[in-house]
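Troubleshooting log. The previous structure file for this entry was overwritten by mistake, so regenerating from the original sequence record. Sequence copied from the archived sheet and checked twice against the printout by T.R.
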Amino acid sequence: MPETQLAVFPPIRKTQVTVLQFNIGRLCNQACQHCHVDSSPKKSGEGDNASGSLIDEVLAFLKANPEVGTLDITGGAPEMNQHFRRLVEGARALDRKVLVRHNITVQFEEGMADLPDFFKQHQVELFCSLPCYSVENVDKQRGRGVFELSIQGLRELNAVGFGKKGSGLHLHLVYNPIGAHLPPAQEELEPAYHAELDEQFGIQFNDLLTITNQPIHRFKDWLLRSKNYETYMDLLRENYNPSALAAVMCRNALSLRWDGRLFDCDFNLVKDLAMVGPDGQALSLSDIGLMDNLAIQVDDHCFACTAGAGSSCGGALVV
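Regenerated output below.
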């Protein structure tokens, strides 16, 4: 076994929490093949989406804890939660940086056409999934017609300034592989994205972020059906990179689920590996004082975050 290959993921602890990632629900207008949250148009019930009272709790938490400077909103398509806009407005009023995981095509759902203007008004930073610049690969992973709508949606975002140099409106594209592979080098793939999207469609964006597919939920189901699960897990372990361990996002972030439970990351959230305090107790947002140097819950899926160049919601960790 190579020196850096591990059978069990190493222990890791939190630093100071500066980011709150809030998964406000599993309701989505898409049902992507790789979705680790198992989001879809069917997830419209109260048990799958954050309530107004939880939104109030988050805004109160941000007000009381100025060291948590970033609110990272994800889903599902987070915009489909009826309280989404109030959450964004409240966080920006508190002068927090707001990130939104935006699937682009939600712009074409009823009542969503003004999203580009809303994002611009509140200076939101956008992270938009586009797993390829070809129609075949995108539609294979995300559904028929998604590529065409994504291109149209990106044009709408460009039209109000997102992705344009000097605008201050940040538009990041997110790549994840199709199949049981690690993503290519982020710094090598980005120029090809810039060239292809500009030449073919006149689309501009700021950065390309590469993310490794997590072996959970739908992607795990596909791995098992295609008899690739063990091979993929071996690939993640064989490519374990200790340099990525110090930069994994679970160290300085909290992940809040739509039901109010706390996790170290969005992947533990899906696996129901909740955060526990130093005495094994369940934690809430009010327990932030207990979280410095707290042990992080780890499992085999964590190898996806440390394979190769590493992977997080912000892209590669080692470049």
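The chain has a mean pLDDT of 91. Archived copy saved in two places this time.
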